[in-house]
Amino acid sequence: MTQEQLADATGLTPVHVNRVLKALEADGLITRQRRQIHYSDWRALQDAGDFTRNYLHIPGEDAVRLAG
To answer: What is the pTM of this model?
Structure first.
């Protein structure tokens, strides 16, 4: 997926997507290879994004397994 496609899918500008991806990479939360994004610490990424799994209606650790 390109940054332009990601921007279209999320309603953001390609410039904003690029800046956010660079910031996440600089913080060590993601690594990028071509059109792939990898994360090594799902919990740290959740914390950085103030993510809450409550709306998913999935109890406990299941959300981590599904996402990772």
So the answer is: 0.70
- Cβ 37 vs Cβ 45: under 8 Å: no
65 Cβ partners below 8 Å, 6+ apart?
Answer: none
pLDDT tens per residue, range 2-59:
899 999 999 999 999 999 999 999 999 999 998 889 998 889 999 998 888 777 776 6
Q: What is the CATH number of the domain that holds 48?
A: 1.10.10
How many structural domains compose the chain? 1
Q: C-alpha dihedral over 42, 65, 51, 24, to 10 degrees?
A: 30
